[in-house]
Amino acid sequence: MMFDLIMIVGPTAVGKTRLSIELAKAFSGEIINGDAMQFYRGLDIGTAKIKEEEKQGIKHHLLDVLDPHEETSVVEYQAKVRKKIEELTKKHKLPIIVGGSGLYLSSILFDYKFPGPSRNEELTKKYEEFTTEILVQMLKNTKPELAKKTDLANRRRVLRALEKDNFDFQEEISSYYQNALIIGLDLERDKLYERIDNRVMDMVNDGLLEEVKSLYDQGISSQAIMAIGYKELFPYFRGETSLEAALALIKRNSRRYAKRQLTWFRNRMNAVWFKVNPENFDKTIEEVKEYIKKRS
């Protein structure tokens, strides 16, 4: 097999899903989900989860594996994905991991350790590139009892909880897979932000409000509703804000998340980057395919 695995990374709305399908068809691959919020059943529209008809017969793994009230950890995800990679390799299928959850994706490539005490007094600045979701996972992995007492939807409180024992985080430098290819997709910032804003409105037209209202009516208060597109609408359903304000917040938070994603992937992953051509994405797909063929 040409690579141990191919991983596709990049910001939200950049085209990772479509590229993954084309690479799976071209190189006899199967796709493993690397988006933490797509683990959850019922979180479909807001997470931009691939529709059945869009899969084009390609097998997908680790989608819809949890109910909204359940939770998981990076450690559990790492074990499941590495097992799945082993299974696919034995079947002579190329594992293609695609998603935007930086810590989860990094956990596949590296082994993590949490060394304990740190004297860093600028925690907020130090972890500004980390999403709230990642910070929550760090807290759960290192201080699970404190995590149970912390408002996990409140970023500041999560940071304060991490700071209580001078928490620090670092990753192993050595790669777990010696022959992994990481493909990064990027897009000019103004065009990316325009696509993000348009995607939010498409989600609304596709039924986002109804999807979130269902979770709200069930009283879901777990990690699942921390996803962008969900947490902003809960106050709307409680009558605390207008729909216009909630949607504006989703767009803003999605743009900020995209920026943090790019920072994470550029700083922590040795990816080969491709600039997306939004007017001709097929051209981008062909460029990636040609690169893979030359490397194999």
Please outline what is shown here:
This protein is an alpha/beta fold and 296 residues long. It is built from 12 helices and 8 strands. The protein has a single domain (5-110, 177-295), classed as Rossmann fold.
Assign the structural class, choosing from mainly alpha, mainly beta, alpha/beta, alpha+beta, or little secondary structure.
Answer: alpha/beta
Instruction: Determine the CATH superfamily.
Output: P-loop containing nucleotide triphosphate hydrolases
Mean pLDDT: 88
- Beta-strand content bin: 15-25%
User: What is the highest CATH level, the class?
Assistant: Alpha Beta
Judging from the principal axes of the Cα atoms, what is the shape? globular
* Helix residue percentage: 40-55%
Ordered list of secondary-structure elements with their pairings:
Layout: E1 5-9, H1 16-26, E2 29-33, E3 60-61, H2 74-90, E4 94-98, H3 102-109, E5 110-117, H4 123-126, H5 132-142, H6 144-148, H7 155-163, E6 167-175, E7 180-186, H8 189-206, H9 208-217, H10 234-237, H11 243-268, E8 272-275, H12 281-295
Parallel strand pairs: 1-4, 1-7, 2-3, 2-4, 7-8
Antiparallel strand pairs: 5-6
Helix pairs in contact: 2-3, 5-7, 8-11
